[in-house]
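Example record for the data management plan.
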Amino acid sequence: MSLETTGQKKGQLEAEVSKAITQWEKEYLGRGPLQVKTDILRNMLIVHLKGILTPAEKELTKTEQGLLSIKKIRADLIEAGNHHLKEIIHTVTGETVESFHTDISTRNAERIIVFILEGNLERKLTE
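Corresponding structural encoding:
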């Protein structure tokens, strides 16, 4: 997909990334987040997911051991599916993902994913 031929605006592309990540979460993890917000900043996509824990996971977070278990399992799942995430970002944006970083707050049921892209997507969208 070429950004030049699609004529997409930054907000539209951010919404498409959010939608694609939500769909991936539903298909891969069996449940999607309640809210997703994506921001394009220079060569980064910053994805903020809210409401990511199941009711059972929320119950487990009441203990320190349960909280750490959920954090580890979720991190392992994301790492195992990282090639799918990179493909999704490439398909939606046309950019190759150099790396990505993620962290989860089990207390707030939120996840942040930062995709580092090879090119400056924000600049390409404003040219």
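Summary line stored alongside the record: The chain is about 50% helix and 25% strand.
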